[in-house]
Amino acid sequence: MSRRRHSDENDGGQAHKRRRTSEPIEIEDRLESLICRVGEKSTSSLESNLEGLAGVLEADLPNYKNKILRILCAVARLLPEKLTVYTTLVGLLNARNYNFGGEFVEAMIRQLKETLKNNLYNEAVYLVRFLSDLVNCHVIAAPSMVAMFENFVSVTQEEDVPQVRSDWFVYVVLSCLPWVGKELYEKKDVEMDRLLSQIEGYLKRRVKTHVQMLQVWTAEKPHPQEEYLDCLWAQIQKLKKDRWQERHILRPYIAFDSVLCEALQHNLPPFTPPGHMPDAQYPMPRVVFRMFDYTDAPEGPVMPGSHSVERFVIEENLHCIIKTHWKERKTCAAQLLSYPGKNKIPLNYHIVEVIFGELFQLPTPPHIDVLYTTLLIELCKLQPGSLPQVLAQATEMLYMRLDTMNTTCIDRYGKPILYIYCLRNNFHQHFLLFFPYSRLINWFSHHLSNFQFRWSWDDWADCLTVDLEKPKPKFVKEVLEKSMRLSYHQRIVDIVPPTFSVLIPAEPIFIYKYLDETASTLPGYQLSITLGNAIKNRATNEEILTILKEVPNPNQEDDDDEGESFNPLKIDVFLQTLLHLAAKSFSHSFSALAKFHEILKTLADSDEGKLHTLKVIYEVWRNHPQMIAVLVDKMIRTQIVDCAAVANWLFSQDMAHEFTRLYIWEILHSTIRKMNKHVQKIQKELEEAKDKLEKQQLKRRDSGDDEDMDKNSEDEDGQLEEQIERLQEKVESAQSEQKNLFLVIFQRFIMLLTEHLVRCETGSVDISTPWYKNCVDRLQQIFLMHHVTIQQYMGTLENLLFTAELDHHILAVYQQFCALQL
C-alpha cells in the first residue's frame, strides 16, 4: 500500500479551500494506515484492535465506502501473510452491514477476474485463499465455495491446453484447504470427496518429465526433492487423515464466533475460469527445496515433517512475508522473526530453509540475489545467539553436497559460508560493508574482501584430494578467481595456504608475444614495432591501414594477387600491439577500441576474422578472465563481433580447456541477453509506430479534416507506413539472427555431448564424468534462463536439432524443457 504525499506548492492564497479539500484525503490516509497496520505489535490484543477497527470503519462507511472497499481488496492481494486478520475484519463488518459484505465479495470477484486476465497468478492465489477463509468467518456460504473449487478442477478436463494451466487451478484449490478444508468437509463431505478424487486422478496422469531439470540436488538423500503438487497433495492427504486439524494458522475469528455465526452469508456469483489464451503466462512448475528435517533440530520444538501440512503453512507464510517486505531488509527480518507461533516451531531452521530455497530456485530466484545476502545479515544481527549456528549447520550441508548440486546453483552458492565464519569470530559489525553480485560465488568472494580474506581454508582441504574438475575444487578455484578481482594477485597468494597453490589463479598479466627480441623470428615482429610507434605517434586510421597492407597473408597463395582473403596475421599484429599499449586499465582498452573502431571492423569483416579477433583477445588476456569478459562485451556493443561469432568461439576447440570455467558462461549468457534486448527494442519501436499510425487515422476520421489537412495527413501516414515497413524488416532480420544464435549454441552442445558419448561408448567408460554433468547442467541452464525466447523457435529446434534420432541422453534435456510448458 502506498501513502500519499501532499505538497503545498502553487496553492497561492487558497488556504481555506485547501483545508476543506484536504480533510477527506487525510481521513482516507488515516483509514489506509489503520487497516494496513492492524495485526502489528500493539499494547492491545489483536481481537480488541479488530473490534475497534471494525467500529471505526462501520462509522465511515456512509462517506468512504468505496475507499474502504479498495483498501480491503488491496490488502487481500498484497498482504497475504495477514490473511486471517483481514478476513476476520471483513467478517465483523459483514455482521454489522450485510450490504457492505455483499459488495466486498463482488469486488473481490472482479479483482480476481482482472488478475487472471493480466497473468498475475500469484496474486490470484491469495485472492482465492482470502475468499475461502471468508467461509470460516461466515461471510461466504460453503456450498458456493465448493462450487467455485469444482469449476477450478474442471479445467483438468480441458483438451489441448498446457499442463501448467491445469496445474495452477489444482494448486489453488489444494493450497486453500489448510485454511478452509475442515469447514467445507463438515458441510459438503460428499462433494469434497468427489473433488479430491478428481484431483487425485489428475495428479496420477500428469507428466513430470520436467522435475529433474528443476531439482537443486540430483540425489534423493537425505531429503527427497519433490515436485510441488505431489508434495502438497501428500500434505493434504495427511491433513485429511488427521481430520483436517492443523495447529499453525492464526485464526482470530474464533474469538468472534458468537457474533459471526449470526451473520447472513453471501453466495459467490458463478465463476467460470477464463479460457486459455495463447499469450497466457502460467507459473512454471517447481520442486520443493528441502534442507532440514526433525533430526537436524535436536533441541527445542520439533520441526514438522515434510508431508505435514504445518510445514506447507509455515513455509507459505514465510514466503509471503519475504514477498511483501523484500525491499526493506530490516523490516523483512523483523517480520520473519516475529512469526506467530514461533515458540511452537524451530523458526530459525524454517527461515534459513525458505531463504535458501528461494535463492536456489530455478531458473531464477523470485527476488534479486542481494536481498538474500542482506536479509541473512539482518537476521544474524537480530538473533546473534541462535541463527548463526543454524546457518553454520546449513553451510556445512551445502558444501558437503556440492557434488550432487546443480551447477547453476553452485554459481550462486558461496556467500553464507563467509558470514558464518565472521559471526563465529565476532566480525559481524562489518556486515554493512557489502557489495552485491548476482551469484553466491561472487558474494562469497566479495565478502572475503571485506573481511581481510580471512577464512579457515584448511577446513576445505578435502577438495585438494579429488579430481580438480569436480565441484568442490572448482568452487574454491572460482571463489579465489572472483576474490582476485576485488583485490590483487599477491594478496590471494598470501592469504591462501601453500597447499592450495594448485587452485590459485594465475597472475592477471598481459601476454604480448612481440614483447622483446626473442620474438624477432615471429612473422610480423618488425611490423608490430612499426605499428606500435605509429599508434604512439597518433597516426591516423589511413596511416595504420597503410602499414597493415605490408603484413603478409599466410592464407594467400603466391600467385594470388587479389589479397582479399582473410588475413589472421594482420589481426594478430594489430590487435596484439593495440591492446598491449592499452593494457594499463579497462578505460585505456575501451578508448583504444573506440579510437580504432573502423580498422577493427574492417579487419573482422568476415566470420573467420571475427573468430580470430576473439581468439587474439583470449591469447593476450588468458590470465585475466574479467578483462576478456568486458572486452568481448564491448566488441559486441560496438558491432566489431556479433553474437553468433562469440558463441562459435566459446564452443571452439581453442576454448575447450576453459569450457567449464564460470566466466565462459557469464560471457555466453550476457551475449544471449544482448541479442534478446536488441530484438525487444526493435519490436517495441515497431509497435509504437503502428500505434501512432492507428491513432492518427482514428483522429482524422473523428475530426473530419478538410482537403488540405487530408493531404498533409496522407503524407504523414505515408511516412509512418514507410517507417513501419523498415522496422518490420529490421525485426525479421533481428529475429533471424536471434534464432541463428540459439541454433549455433544448441548445435554446438549436441556436437560436444555426442562426441563425449561416442568416446565413452567406444572406450567402455562411464559417461557420467564431471565434464559431462557440467555440460548437461549448462544446457539445462540455457533452456531455463531463456525459456520465453526459446519457445518461439521450438518448431525449428525440433525439425533441425532435437530430432528422434538424437541420443536419448541429450534428447531427454529437451523433453524436460518441453514438459515445463506442456
From TrEMBL:
Domain MIF4G: 28-240
Keyword Coiled coil annotated: yes
Biased composition range(s): Basic and acidic residues: 693-703
Ranges annotated as biased composition (Acidic residues): 704-721
SMART domains assigned: MIF4G
SUPFAM superfamilies, sorted: ARM repeat
Keywords, alphabetical: Coiled coil, Cytoplasm, mRNA capping, mRNA processing, mRNA splicing, mRNA transport, Nonsense-mediated mRNA decay, Nucleus, RNA-mediated gene silencing, Translation regulation, Transport
Gene Ontology CC entries for this record: cytoplasm; nuclear cap binding complex; nucleus
GO molecular function list: mRNA binding; RNA cap binding
Disordered: annotated span: 1-23, 693-721
Cellular localization per UniProt: Cytoplasm; Nucleus
UniProt keyword Endoplasmic reticulum, yes or no: no
Broad class of where this protein is predominantly found: cytoplasm
GO BP terms: 7-methylguanosine mRNA capping; mRNA export from nucleus; nuclear-transcribed mRNA catabolic process, nonsense-mediated decay; regulation of mRNA processing; regulation of translation; regulatory ncRNA-mediated gene silencing; RNA splicing
Family: Belongs to the NCBP1 family.
Name used for this protein in its record: Nuclear cap binding protein subunit 1
Species this protein is from: Cynoglossus semilaevis
